[in-house]
Design a protein that fits this description.
The protein has 8 helices and 14 strands. The chain is an alpha/beta fold. The strands form 3 sheets. Strands 1, 2, 3, 4, 5 and 9 form a 6-stranded mixed beta sheet that branches. Strands 12-11-10-13-14 form a 5-stranded mixed beta sheet, sandwiched between helices.
Length: 306
């Protein structure tokens, strides 16, 4: 049960609603920056508490971010078209790849170097819309504006930019307390693929061996689908405390793998986040990035954003 929140959010200008498999968190942004989160369970009780929260707080726009295993990716080429012809091809591809969900997004990723020089696109979608729709519906019913629906993996490109990462092939690895181990692969700073793996509760098992095992699985997959070439892979891992210490002892650079271990607290300071982060989790960082950068919408329809 939540106590009355009316006074806590009186100065909020925008807020983030972060949806994950194990919980839904709301952060507000005010003149001091981002605040600690209010957390709701992913069940009927959580939805009821969230509706109460919406009724008791100012109708500040919500930026909804999703970090779930049900986000999928497809790479495709299409002819270099314009206007309605191009849009028609994209919509046909989306309908073919992702039946049954309205939450689709497409990213232009350059053109082929030879032949017709077709456009290279990455299609992504939340393949289970029921993860999102109950929360969006409550925003609509309570007349709270939805600024957009966003993908955490797509947003994470802005984290690489903030950290001034310029390597060719990059694997960005973060842990979120409500979702798990997120691994996102970038080529030339463009997202190509992302994977989410479960994490045990903090302190119950050593994280480092599990993390490195999951990275090995993902790297083998990237090689099998020819996204990862023969060149060195720069892996950036955000962690803190004992988890960071374990990784520093376990990670060894080779000719094809270079590890860059970053303290979550240091990254937060560089981003201008007030306070000290004391866990290996990056939830706070991504909520800050979302509300700070206010990116263009990824998944929401025009009707949902009215």
């Amino acid at each position: 049960m939540i106590s009355s929140l009316r006074s806590n959010f009186s100065s909020a200008r925008r807020r983030a609603l972060c949806i994950a498999s194990d919980g839904v968190s709301v952060y507000q942004w005010d003149r001091r920056g981002i605040t600690d989160a209010f957390v709701f369970d992913v069940d009927d009780v959580g939805l009821a508490n969230f509706e109460r929260y919406l009724r008791e707080t100012p109708k500040v726009p919500i930026y909804l971010m999703v970090d779930v295993v049900e986000e999928e990716y497809r790479h495709e080429t299409i002819p270099h078209l314009y206007g309605s012809d191009r849009q028609a091809v994209i919509e046909r591809k989306q309908a073919w790849f992702f039946r049954g969900t309205p939450y689709c997004h497409v990213m232009m990723q350059g053109r082929e170097a030879e032949g017709r020089r077709d456009d290279k696109l990455m299609f992504t979608a939340i393949i289970n819309p029921d993860i999102v729709t109950p929360w969006v519906r409550l925003c609509t019913q309570n007349k709270v504006a939805l600024a957009g629906i966003y993908s955490l993996p797509i947003l994470s490109a802005s984290l690489l930019a903030k950290m001034k990462v310029t390597s060719n092939d990059v694997l960005l690895v973060t842990m979120q307390g409500s979702s798990g181990l997120r691994q996102s692969f970038f080529n030339d700073r463009i997202l190509k693929m992302s994977r989410l793996a479960k994490l045990s509760r903090l302190g119950t098992v050593p994280f480092a061996p599990y993390i490195l095992g999951e990275l090995g699985k993902f790297e083998r997959y990237l090689t099998s689908v020819q996204l990862l070439k023969a060149g060195p892979l720069d892996t950036y891992i955000l962690a803190h405390g004992e988890t960071l210490d374990q990784l520093e002892r376990a990670c060894r650079n080779t000719e094809t793998a270079r590890y860059h271990l970053l303290d979550v607290a240091d990254v937060a300071r560089r981003l201008g986040i007030h306070g000290v982060l004391t866990t290996p989790f990056s939830d706070h960082i991504f909520a800050h990035l979302l509300l700070r950068t206010q990116p263009k919408n990824h998944f929401a329809s025009n009707e949902e954003r009215r």
